[in-house]
Amino acid sequence: MNILIVDDHPLVCIGIRNILISEKDIDNVSSANDVKSALRLMAENSYDLALVDVRLKGESGIDFIRTAKNKFPGCKYVILSSSSAFDDFDKAMQLNVDGYILKDAFTEDIVYAVKSVLRGRKYFDPVFLERMKPSQPIPQSGKNDEEQLSPREAEILDCLGKGMSNKSIADKLCISENTVKKHVSSILAKLKLSDRIQAALYANKTQNDKGE
């Protein structure tokens, strides 16, 4: 799998490239800091996925995707941005992008999102699932809601089903309580649950349905 990162911050490109290139099923990760360079690279190479920032030194990542989708329809396009503005998200949705990831996402969630999109699914940061207009169908990344969870989120959901506190989960998984809280919020958004009690009930019901 070949991936192109389009971002005007070189350090961001290096960081995301280092995250992705360590994955055994990702063959090549290139980067471009502006629209002209990105389009040139896409003309010279065959990319499976383009990760695009919304704002590129006075240029628009949304406009780039609009142009690139016409020229290179075989590539999948995902926004990777620090912008959580709903206006940016709405414009991206109008282009039928394959995903929208925020740069402050956990490393494992970025990898999970990229791999999900490469497998033909959609991935959207939970903050947008919570804020989507009622008239818009919520994008699903699989046949059921649980498939949207990253491996770490699935672990934490299991812990919630056992009635564990955030501190207990943090101690068990060797992560901070703040990290646990962020994962719990993500789980609630993805599964469309209102609180951790519902999450615990959901976890137990899922395990019972599986015969565990």
From TrEMBL:
Annotated Response regulatory domain residues: 2-118
CDD domains found in the cross-reference section: LuxR_C_like, REC_NarL-like
Keyword set includes Phosphoprotein: yes
GO biological process: phosphorelay signal transduction system; regulation of DNA-templated transcription
Tree of life domain: Bacteria
Pfam families: GerE, Response_reg
All residue ranges annotated as the HTH luxR-type domain in the record: 142-207
Chain segments annotated as coiled-coil in the UniProt record: none
Molecular function GO terms recorded: DNA binding
InterPro entries per the UniProt record, alphabetical: CheY-like_superfamily (IPR011006), EvgA-like (IPR051015), NreC/VraR/RcsB-like_REC (IPR058245), Sig_transdc_resp-reg_C-effctor (IPR016032), Sig_transdc_resp-reg_receiver (IPR001789), Tscrpt_reg_LuxR_C (IPR000792)
Record-listed 4-aspartylphosphate modification sites: D53
Keywords: DNA-binding, Phosphoprotein
Function comment: May play the central regulatory role in sporulation. It may be an element of the effector pathway responsible for the activation of sporulation genes in response to nutritional stress. Spo0A may act in concert with spo0H (a sigma factor) to control the expression of some genes that are critical to the sporulation process.
Name of the protein: Stage 0 sporulation protein A homolog
Organism per entry: Clostridium thermosuccinogenes
